[in-house]
Amino acid sequence: MNQIRTNLSRSAMRMSGAVALAMCATAALHAQVVVKTIPGDPVKIESGSIAGLALPNGVKEYLGVPYAAPPVGPLRWREPQPVQAWEGVYQANRFGNKCPQTADLTPEGMSEDCLFLNIWAPATAKAGAKLPVILYFHGGGDTGNSGARPFYNGRTLAANGVIHITVNWRLGPFAHFASPELTAESPFHSSGNYEHYDQLAAMKWVQRNIAAFGGDPENVTLMGLSNGSIKIGYTQASPVTKGLYKRVIALSGSPIGGGAPMGTSTLKESEQDGQKFMAGLGAKSLADMRAIPMVRLLQGVPDLTLRGAVIDGYLLTDTPDAIFAAGKQVDVPAIYGNSRDESMSSLARLKTVAEFRDAVTKMAGPKADQLLKLFPVSRDEDVPAVATRLANAAEFSRQMVGRARAHVATGKTPVYLDMFARAPALHGYDLPYWFDILDLPGAVVDSGRKIDATDHMIAQKMNAAIVAFVKTGDPSTPSLKWPQYRRDNEVRMVFGDTVQPLPVDEGVKFFVDNPDIKAPGAGPAAGAPARPAGAPL
């Protein structure tokens, strides 16, 4: 049976009265959409009835589902508010708007009305099935991205019995602006943490609604890469998130364990930065700020976009490192990992032995000889590969091994560590393997590279491991025995041309043991190799 979309204007849907009805009717006249309906739809959730799409493999896809009211007008820089209930059937057949951003990475429309999530569910999923759930947090450095990237597609996970969800949240100045006026009007006496509050709202939405799609609200795994992984670290350090998830999978980014690119600030510091932001825009009050057009805010002070979190006394009471050291984190089983060759450091640009030794000496000082023994090089032609390994050890591997160490030091739950090593093992290149979507158009960044049987073997093993993990808390499968990471047995599962557990490199341990030694010139601005176009952050 074909069905016509009846609620094309999401903004109109949230309004009330004759104006909203007129807008919806007008929209329906101009843009009817014929879709293949899902048997058993519509699904009843707290805000109304919802219908999705049936994919060729039977997986159920619900796109652009609102989890909070549009944060516009007086709700700009407010904690997310409930979705207004609608009448009729909400046709969840396309991605919702992406949030305002300067790194325009996806083709959806851009709007402050952007708090949407997307759901992939198994063909046989039904209310009461209690299927495991993954809630995926995207990356993008707080400057761009959305839950619509092809790298995040959940069709294979759903085919394997897991409900997969991606989510949008506020970015840049819409996420990080703080001011005394905002703090005063907040019920939590907080400002500047709006992306974290959006993520919290999405987690709570899942608790209240995912059972209607067949999911188990008591078995939710948070997963994220890059900035998404960093956000999960703050979530683990936040007392208000306890009970909202059961496990985490955090990849290539951490605010815990050293080397994090985005740290915390105090509420006072954030308010002071916010006042500078206002001054730069010529605004004298919060009312002025809420009246400024979206595009002009995006053109404001760039530094306001690169934040980790605000220690506001409610969402976050201390730095994540301090929270973990005190054993006050949300203690859940975890997979932590990264890719072998990812780096944002200028170290990766080195070409000669002389350059390499000079850089190591400047970086490590009196410990340079020790580091040069761990990363030996005698020929110029070997420098790029060794320098890349060094940069990775100083950055992403240090972050994730340090995070694992912090976890097991005070936690009681198991940790599993991994490293993706199938060349090119760059930042985020592991995602289509984890999700086993190598054949999905747009999912593989290096589209010119031939995908062969080895790639598919690795993807199947990686996907089976996370399916096992979200179902049981252990990523081991009949074909893959994945040992736990322990302080006295630092091993990680390496997914490369061969798949096997291997000891953590001594070079990585050096950087974890020496947190004051930093990789030089981190970031593209310092001349590091640029992120490949379309890379899955």
Give a brief description:
The protein has 537 residues and is α/β, with parallel strands linked by helices. The protein has helices spanning 10-13, 17-30, 155-159, 172-176, 180-185, 194-209, 227-236, 267-281, 286-291, 294-298, 320-325, 353-364, 368-374, 383-410, 431-434, 453-472, 506-513; strands at 2-4, 34-36, 43-45, 48-51, 53-54, 60-66, 89-91, 116-121, 131-137, 163-167, 215-225, 247-251, 264-266, 309-311, 334-339, 415-420, 491-495, 499-503.
Number of strands: 18
Strand arrangement within the widest β-sheet reads: 5-6-8-10-9-11-12-15-16-17-18
Just name the CATH architecture of the domain at 37-132 and 141-222 and 256-326. 3-Layer(aba) Sandwich
Low-confidence stretches: 1-35, 523-535
Structural class comes to: alpha/beta
Largest sheet at a glance? 11 strands, mixed
- The percent of residues in helical segments reads 25-40%
Mean pLDDT: 89
Structural Rg? 23 Å
Shape: globular
Q: Enter the CATH topology name of the domain at 37-132 and 141-222 and 256-326.
A: Rossmann fold
Share in β-strands: 15-25%
Q: Count of DSSP helices?
A: 17
CATH homologous superfamily (4th level) name of the domain at 37-132 and 141-222 and 256-326:
Alpha/Beta hydrolase fold, catalytic domain
* Termini separation: 39 Å
CATH class of the domain at 37-132 and 141-222 and 256-326: Alpha Beta
